[in-house]
Amino acid sequence: MRHTTKIALAAAVTVTALAAGGAAVAAAPAVAAAPASHSSTTSAAVSQAAVTQASVSQAAVTRSQAVAIAKKRVPGARVTEIEREWEHGHRTWKVELRKGHMEYKVYVAIATGRIVKFRAEHDD
Length: 124
Hints:
α1 runs parallel beside α3. The protein is of the alpha+beta class. The chain has a four-stranded antiparallel sheet, with helices on one face. It contains four helices and four strands; from the N terminus they run ααααββββ. The protein has helices at 3-19, 28-32, 39-57, 63-73, and strands at residues 78-87, 90-99, 102-109, 115-122. β3 (102-109) and β4 form a beta hairpin. The protein is elongated.
């Protein structure tokens, strides 16, 4: 294996290990033991596996995390309803909040935790 391929492979394993919380560390010795005869094929397959593992290991935003994100946007509000929805092409948690005479709808993307939509309505 060429030196640059080894470095790239080590970087991919490190990123995967960090993203997976150490689960990919067990795969590191197998990567280092790959035979040199088919190194380019092996390194490409391992790199793809590292990217796939990193994508799968990213935790989705939980219900309680979505509530915390919404409450941070509207401090002092109380939660009245939570449900999953599609909004602007994103799978979201819709968190409905009430504070005084105002009702808020905060749509938190499940994949990223970003607020993709926010609505405030005066409720009499």
